[in-house]
Write the structure tokens for this entry.
Amino acid sequence: MTDQEKTTVESEIATLEGKLTGDMFQDMEIRDKIHNLKMTLEGVRPSNSEFECVGCGS
């Protein structure tokens, strides 16, 4: 992942975190997106993977 791609993903995470309301049910979809972006950023799962994560089901 290039530095520009990392910056883009980090920006997306920050934007999504700004949309969190504190309501667990309302935030569930946003938190899932944040989790997936963090996994991509950390290289846990390939960014273009269509496969489910075996460990956590994401």
About this structure: The CA atoms of residues 3 and 9 lie 10 Å apart. The helical segments are 3-18, 24-42. The mean pLDDT is 84. The longest helix spans residues 24-42.
